[in-house]
Every structure is written in structure tokens, then in C-alpha cells.
């Protein structure tokens, strides 16, 4: 919807300058997802925290976005999001100034979506994809926005192929969930390059990212203190996540041909030696539109491969050796997702989904998750 409003004149008394009154045209839009789910096993510590009681928090979300033109080249965009699983506390996911030089180039500064995945820009707009939620084996990073700048360039390579590139630099600092623990994540010198090529029904995407991260939480702090107290400072330094470098790679293929949809996406996290394991995830999804209905099937897999040898300097049988060895445990998880999307009204979709997740390592366990969500955009 569009709202016409008159900006108030602002007098800057220190400079004696009066700002003129402008008519500012604001564009408002938003999105909402309301739904619930249940799981037959809540011991796996998945990104979606359903248990044996029906919950309406995990997949429910509300977002409001507004864009205000400042002049013919510069505009301001803000997006506020409230998530059910965070008690509907409001957070600013977008808050940036945009400079649009021409149809081919624009740059932004402020709070931006981190362009890690194919669906990063619309990650919380459930209406924009066929799942209730993207597979966590791939879409698994504990944050989705950064504070920084980016530059974007789009051109036509041929009459049929459009090429887009994006470079960015940014930071992030906040409390996040890592391995089920509330942790303080400080990300610095985040840089990345995203390249994509589009041909009518086909999109090819690849990206590479680098950052330096520091992670602290109660478990890390306790183990660090115990190791240093026992004289194993070198082991403590080895496993610490303190300004460690990390590379993130991503590649995706998206095909939307006639009534068929195919998505494949692969990601890899490569950490400098630390307590955080390297991680690879990938998924394949297929869907078919049949009138207002879109049935779909997805397979996703994640494989964590941790560093080894941290505990070698600690004598066999020591209690600390076992605690350090726990950091070297590998993780392997697979999920099957089957569902149907029903576009029964304009800008509104009802989704039903069944997810089977099998965690093979470090423990052998599985769960079934049943979900239903109503998505809408306005």
C-alpha cells in the first residue's frame, strides 16, 4: 500500500538552518506466516524446536517493510521483523540507504541481508518459496543480516543471459544459538562475492565469503579455564575461537520451467583450526504445479567434520582429555521433506508438510515433524 505524508519542518537551531517541508511518498508492504507443528521426538536439538505438544511459535513471523525516496538517486529502506520463537520481539533486519546510479548499478549502506544463500533476500518471506521453511541442513547459519556496505551490478551478457554481481563488506555482533548454547558471536572483516547468471527459466549462482569470528559461551569459558588451570594453555589456545578465519562457499541451480521446479544448493564452511567443525550441506528439491496446488519433495544432508588431535598433549585417562575429545565428534544428518502448497487466494498460500530427520552421528536418533502454515504478502 502507499501512504502520502507530509514531513515536518526541522529547525537545526545550532546552525540556524530550517529544513523545507517535502511531500514524502512511502511504500509499505509486508509478509506474515502463521502456523503450528508437532514432533514425535524433541531430543535432536534441531533449528526448528517442535516437541510432542503443538506449538504455534516456531514458524510464525510478521514483517513490515517501508521504502522512502530521498531524491531521484537515493532512497531509504527499513524492514522490521517479529518472530514467534523469539516472543515476537521486534528486530530491524533491513535499515539501509540505497544509491541507484542507473539501471545497472546500485550500492547500499546500513543493515543488509547477508547474501549467503539463493533465498537470502526472502529467507523469512515464506510465501516466496514452496517449503514451510528451507532445509536447515543448508540454511543453517545462526544469523542472516550484517551491518556494512555492498555494490551490485547487472548487465546482459547476450540477448538471453543476464549477469549479476554483488560484493560486500560488513560486521555482525549479537547473541546466537550455537550447538544449542546461547553464544556471543563477533564477526569482523566479513567480505564476499556473489555471481549469478539468469536465462529465462534457469538461474546459476555461486558465492564465496570470508570473515574473522570470535565465539564465547559458558561451555567454552569453563573448558578454557580448566585447561589453563591444569597447565594446558597450548590446548586451550588450539580450540579457542578467537578471531579465527572462516571461509563459506555456496553454489546453486534453480530451474522454473513450465510447471516444474528444480532446486539444488550446496554449501561448505571451512574454519581455521578451532573447536568449530568444518561443515558441508546440500539439498535437492523438486516440485510440480498442478492448478493451485504444488506438491514437492526434498532431500537434504549435512556432514560436520571436526578437527582431531586436540587432546594429544593431555595424558590418557585424564578427565579433561575426554572433554576435549568431545569436540572432535563428527555429525551427520539427513532429512526428507514432503509437502504441498495450496495457493487458494491471491497473495495467500496454505502449506502442509511432513519432515523426517535422521541424525546418524554423534547419536543415532530420528524424528518426524508435522507442520501447517498460512503464508501471505501484502
From TrEMBL:
For this UniProt record, give its keywords in alphabetical order, as a comma-separated list.
Signal
Renumbered to this chain, the signal peptide range is 1-23
Q: Please name the InterPro entries in this protein's record.
A: Porin_dom_sf
Where does the source fall among the domains of life? Bacteria
What protein name does the entry list? Porin
Its source organism is Litoribrevibacter albus
Its organism's taxonomic lineage begins at: Bacteria, Pseudomonadati, Pseudomonadota, Gammaproteobacteria, Oceanospirillales
Amino acid at each position: 500500500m502507499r501512504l502520502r505524508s507530509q514531513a515536518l519542518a526541522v529547525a537545526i537551531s545550532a546552525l540556524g538552518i530550517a529544513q523545507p517541508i517535502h511531500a514524502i511518498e512511502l511504500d509499505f508492504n509486508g509478509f506474515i506466516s502463521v502456523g503450528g507443528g508437532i514432533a514425535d521426538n524433541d531430543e535432536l536439538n534441531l533449528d526448528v524446536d517442535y516437541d510432542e505438544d503443538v506449538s504455534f511459535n516456531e514458524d510464525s513471523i510478521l514483517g513490515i517493510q517501508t521504502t522512502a525516496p530521498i531524491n531521484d538517486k537515493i532512497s531509504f529502506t527499513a524492514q522490521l521483523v517479529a518472530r514467534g520463537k523469539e516472543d515476537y520481539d521486534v528486530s530491524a533486519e533491513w535499515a539501509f540507504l540505497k544509491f541507484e546510479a542507473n539501471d545497472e548499478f546500485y550500492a547500499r549502506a546500513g543493515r543488509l541481508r547477508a547474501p549467503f544463500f539463493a533465498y537470502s533476500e526472502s529467507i523469512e518471506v515464506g510465501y516466496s518459496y514452496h517449503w514451510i521453511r528451507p532445509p536447515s541442513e543448508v540454511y543453517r547459519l545462526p544469523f542472516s543480516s550484517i551491518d556494512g556496505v555492498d555494490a551490485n551490478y547487472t548487465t546482459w551478457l547476450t540477448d538471453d543471459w543476464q549477469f549479476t554481481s554483488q560484493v560486500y563488506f560488513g560486521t555482525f555482533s549479537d547473541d546466537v544459538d550455537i550447538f544449542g548454547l546461547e553464544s556471543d558471536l563477533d564477526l569482523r572483516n566479513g567480505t564476499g562475492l556473489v555471481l549469478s547468471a539468469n536465462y529465462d527459466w534457469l538461474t546459476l549462482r555461486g558465492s564465496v565469503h570470508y570473515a574473522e569470528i570470535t565465539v564465547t559461551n559458558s561451555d567454552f569459558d569453563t573448558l578454557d579455564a580448566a585447561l589453563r588451570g591444569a597447565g594446558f594453555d597450548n590446548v586451550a589456545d588450539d580450540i579457542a575461537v578467537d578471531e579465527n578465519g572462516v571461509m563459506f562457499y555456496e553454489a546453486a541451480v534453480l530451474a522454473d520451467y513450465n510447471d516444474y521446479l528444480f532446486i539444488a544448493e550446496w554449501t561448505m564452511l571451512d574454519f581455521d583450526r578451532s573447536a568449530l567443525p568444518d561443515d558441508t550441506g546440500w539439498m535437492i528439491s523438486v516440485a510440480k504445479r498442478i492448478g493451485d496446488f504444488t506438491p514437492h519433495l526434498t532431500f537434504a544432508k549435512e556432514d560436520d567434520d571436526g578437527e582431531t588431535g586436540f587432546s594429544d598433549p593431555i595424558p590418557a585417562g585424564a578427565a579433561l582429555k575426554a572433554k576435549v575429545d568431545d569436540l572432535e565428534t563428527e555429525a551427520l544428518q539427513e532429512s526428507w521433506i514432503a509437502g504441498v502448497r495450496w495457493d487458494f487466494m491471491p497473495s495467500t498460500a496454505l502449506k502442509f508438510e511432513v519432515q523426517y530427520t535422521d541424525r546418524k552421528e554423534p547419536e543415532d536418533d530420528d524424528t518426524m515433524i508435522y507442520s501447517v502454515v498460512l503464508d501471505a504478502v501484502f
